């Protein structure tokens, strides 16, 4: 269908639907189960740390429980992305449920900011008026949390650790290992020296780890919800690359690229071929280059024809009815 535009070229639209566009490593059912098992372990020990923090009076344990919550969220989002990503699209959701992960990430990031605020306020109050902490129970729970994180780290690194979601979960668990180690150190210091301020001080350090994770999660999810371009596939990068690397391309314009979810970029763009007769070959080459170099497997490419006659001829060829002779009916007598 010919469309008016600011320049005197008509457009023919082609869609690249190479559905192998999840160019990240595939995640098997076995690895999905590993992610789910890791979630259960982290979530269970998070509850243990909450109980231990309340019983021992340790703010550092409660802060570490908050950081374990970020781990549980990361693992839950990874698992949800694998499960919901397999759901088929329907008439109401043409991209399926791929954005479920992004929306959940945004909501959880806001929640984590609230947890950090509570920890900071409570730490300030305890620094002003130190409270007694039971070093024995605190140390036992902190060591258990450290071992739980070490186990989860081992489980995750036995799976497809190159996958973007699993890699993110592994980084979360590494951060929580530091938080658990901090709680162990605080318990040892309190046991041998009786210096109570070490507990709120380390809780602030752990809360900074939570804040860092929450900020990254918020920025990433908000960027996707605002349909921002991937860092490695910005419109200017795509435009320059296609014009320089794809033979037969005269110009590339109107490039729009965005993420439907993490690791799933989509794009629309206009391409003007050097020769109109080679337009379709150029479009196919552009689609292949978008997939190979930028990981964009779903692209809509509009042709900017050099002449109106070329666009008309192309559209006429597509609209022309099939020749009966081509189907073996050319010799059928008229009634």
Topology:
Layout: E1 11-17, H1 29-56, H2 59-85, H3 100-128, H4 135-157, H5 164-193, H6 198-225, H7 235-245, E2 249-261, E3 264-273, H8 279-294, E4 298-304, H9 308-319
Parallel strand pairs: 3-4
Antiparallel strand pairs: 1-4, 2-3
How does this structure look, described?
- The chain is of the alpha+beta class and 335 residues long.
- It has helices at 29-56, 59-85, 100-128, 135-157, 164-193, 198-225, 235-245, 279-294, 308-319; strands at 11-17, 249-261, 264-273, 298-304.
- Helix 1 packs antiparallel against helix 2, helix 1 (29-56) runs antiparallel to helix 4 (135-157) and helix 2 (59-85) packs parallel to helix 6.
- The chain starts with 10 loop residues before the first strand and ends in a 16-residue tail after the last helix.
Radius of gyration: 28 Å
* Arithmetic mean pLDDT: 79
| Alpha-carbon distance between the two ends | 37 Å
Question: Beta-sheet strand percentage?
Answer: 5-15%
Number of helices: 9
Main pleated sheet: 4 strands, mixed
Task: Name the structural class.
Answer: alpha+beta
Count of distinct strands: 4
Name the shape in a single word.
elongated
Short description:
This protein is of the alpha+beta class and 335 residues long. It is built from nine helices and four strands; from the N terminus they run E-H-H-H-H-H-H-H-E-E-H-E-H.
How would you describe this structure in keywords?
335 residues; 4-stranded mixed β-sheet; 9 helices; disordered N terminus
């Amino acid at each position: 269908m010919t469309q008016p535009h600011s320049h005197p070229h008509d457009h023919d639209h082609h869609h690249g639907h190479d559905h192998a566009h999840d160019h990240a490593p595939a995640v098997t059912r076995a690895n999905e189960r590993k992610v789910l098992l890791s979630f259960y372990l982290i979530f269970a020990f998070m509850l243990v740390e909450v109980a231990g923090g309340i019983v021992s009076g340790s703010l550092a344990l409660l802060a570490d429980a908050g950081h374990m919550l970020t781990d549980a969220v990361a693992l839950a989002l990874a698992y949800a992305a694998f499960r919901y990503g397999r759901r088929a699209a329907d008439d109401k959701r043409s991209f399926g449920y791929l954005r479920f992960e992004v929306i959940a990430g945004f909501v959880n990031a806001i929640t984590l900011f609230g947890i950090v605020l509570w920890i900071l306020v409570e730490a300030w109050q305890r620094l002003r008026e130190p409270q007694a902490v039971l070093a024995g129970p605190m140390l036992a729970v902190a060591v258990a949390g450290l071992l739980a994180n070490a186990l989860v780290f081992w489980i995750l690194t036995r799976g497809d650790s190159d996958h973007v979601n699993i890699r993110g979960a592994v980084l979360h668990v590494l951060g929580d290992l530091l938080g658990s180690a901090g709680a162990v150190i605080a318990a040892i210091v309190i046991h041998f020296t009786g210096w109570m301020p070490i507990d709120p001080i380390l809780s602030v350090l752990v809360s900074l780890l939570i804040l860092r994770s929450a900020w990254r999660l918020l920025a990433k999810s908000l960027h996707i919800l605002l349909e921002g371009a991937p860092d490695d596939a910005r419109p200017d990068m795509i435009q320059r690359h296609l014009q320089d690397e794809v033979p037969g391309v005269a110009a590339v314009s109107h490039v729009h690229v965005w993420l439907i979810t993490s690791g799933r970029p989509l794009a629309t763009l206009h391409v003007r071929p050097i020769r109109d007769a080679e337009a379709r070959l150029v479009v196919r080459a552009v689609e292949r280059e978008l997939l190979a170099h930028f990981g964009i497997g779903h692209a809509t490419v509009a042709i900017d024809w050099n002449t109106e006659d070329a666009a008309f001829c192309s559209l006429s060829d597509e609209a022309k009815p099939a020749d009966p002779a081509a189907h073996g009916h050319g010799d059928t007598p008229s009634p």
